[in-house]
Design brief:
By secondary structure, the protein is of the alpha+beta class. Helix content is 43%, strand content 19%.
Length: 471
């Protein structure tokens, strides 16, 4: 560790949705950059895939670490055991062959056919068109589109029940339950063979922030974080300026994926295509894995803005929400209870965009009237009568009722802080002047307010759970 720190110049982080996604991303980056201290991940092994050989007349499903041309790949997966378990699920549901071409060419049904795991296309036990149909449904299933497979299994179950084949109907029901619990998702791997650059951007005043993920051969290979001064007046103009400057001396990918299209996107794409000598697309992503990669880039962008320049972020929040105070200190409040029993409250503090956990507080609600509003009023009164430094912005987990209570407490105590309430679901933000808005998805403003709201909600839930266990 000492040698690693001595040779390090800077520390960068990439946030993922889950630990498994972080492991996949670590493997991809280590294999790309070959750093000196990651010996364990620098061998020639890679994370496994599930491969469907679509180029074959009768496609097979295999465990694979490298793909053949024309194959469909699902993954990568964190463990080989999970990959093999998923192959077992697919063969049970769709009866695809798992044998190699040498065994298949013998034309003799194997044990898998006799136990109901293969439809034996090698011996002509199934028509080619029907087998290809099963392959198509299986591929959709591996892509996460389970509706077609579920409808097929449900119809089969009902037909078997009408024929009074209850054993077969029970098996079809078990397959449906297995299908319902199936999930295959990786946020750090794109299955497209086209090189992609994913770029998230944000403009706060004259400060522009960008996060760049380079995806090559189906994996995230590099990341970059940029904080620049700009004279542009809109996010679309600043993004277009960044793209022209960034790709001036860099190789161009096949696609540039962004949250919103820059100004003159068609002209930029034409310019990049002429320079690259091939088609280069600039597009947004609405669904699928590219959208999930873009969402991950937006999350990292919000953290980058929050960490690198809170003055710009706070100024943007103040302007967007029409606040009287610069939101340097934000305090979040929430109530938790179960049928009015053991009501508790929680308070969290964020200073310049970062949590100050030593300042967190928990409250036992004692004399308040039933309901969240009475409990919120008691907690706010106790908090602001304590005499500690007052916040610039109070953020409540809730909607108009909670905001109304906070407005009354502010008037009674003569407080000078701003008030807002963030409701779950639509993520609508209710403001003190009676207006409301829904912050743009992926924006640093929305990310910070959600972070405060979720942090206080977790603390309230945890306190309530501990209280119940103690009693």
């Amino acid at each position: 560790m000492r040698s690693l720190l001595e040779r390090s110049e800077a520390l960068e982080t990439i946030v993922t949705e889950a630990e498994a996604d972080a492991l996949l991303l670590e493997s991809s980056l280590v294999h790309s950059h070959l750093p000196p201290f990651n010996i364990r991940l620098k061998d020639d092994k890679s994370f496994p895939f599930i491969e469907v050989t679509l180029a074959s007349e009768f496609p097979a499903i295999h465990f694979s670490r490298r793909s053949a041309a024309g194959s469909f790949l699902a993954g990568p997966l964190v463990s080989a055991a999970k990959a093999r378990a998923l192959i077992d699920t697919v063969t049970r549901l769709f009866q695809l062959r798992t044998c190699g071409d040498a065994i298949f060419s013998k034309g003799i049904p194997c044990l898998y056919h006799h136990i109901g795991r293969c439809s034996a296309p090698c011996a002509g036990r199934i028509e080619p068109a029907r087998y290809r149909g099963q392959v198509a449904v299986a591929v959709d299933f591996l892509k996460g589109r389970k509706h077609g497979a579920a409808a097929r299994l449900r119809g089969n179950m009902r037909a078997l029940a009408r024929q009074q084949d209850f054993e077969g109907a029970q098996k079809a029901k078990e397959d449906l339950e297995l299908l319902a619990g199936f999930s295959l998702r990786s946020c750090v791997s794109l299955r497209s063979r086209i090189d992609n650059d994913v770029i998230a951007s944000c403009l706060l005043g004259r400060e522009a922030f960008f996060v760049h993920f380079a995806c090559s051969g189906g994996r995230v290979r590099r990341s970059g974080f940029f904080h620049l001064q700009t004279l542009r007046d809109s996010p679309e103009e600043s993004l277009g300026e960044f793209l022209v400057d960034y790709y001036r001396l860099r190789p161009l990918p096949g696609e540039v994926i962004v949250a919103r299209l820059p100004d003159e996107a068609a002209g930029l794409a034409s310019l990049f295509s002429r320079r690259a000598g091939r088609r280069v697309r600039i597009r947004t992503a609405r669904r699928g894995e590219k959208k999930r990669i873009l969402d991950m880039a937006l999350k990292n962008l919000a953290l980058f803005v929050q960490k690198s320049d809170y003055r710009s972020l706070g100024g943007g929040i103040q302007q967007r929400l029409r606040l009287a105070n610069f939101p340097s200190r934000i305090e979040g409040f929430d109530i938790s209870h179960l049928g009015e029993k053991h009501r508790v409250g929680a308070q969290v503090v964020f200073q310049d965009g970062r949590p100050e956990r030593r300042l967190y507080r928990s409250y036992l609600i004692r004399g308040a009237a039933p309901g969240d509003s009475g409990a919120m009023e008691e907690m706010l009164l106790r908090r602001f009568r304590a005499g500690s430094p007052h916040p610039d912005l109070v953020l409540l987990d809730g909607g108009l009722p909670q905001l109304g209570v906070a407005r009354q407490v502010k008037a009674d105590l003569g407080l000078g802080c701003d008030l807002a309430a963030l409701a779950k679901g639509e993520e609508r933000l209710f403001l003190e002047d009676g207006t409301s808005l829904v912050p743009e998805s992926g924006s640093p403003l929305r990310h910070l307010l959600q972070q405060v709201r979720d942090e206080v909600h977790r603390r309230a839930i945890r306190h309530h759970r501990l209280r119940r266990e103690k009693i």
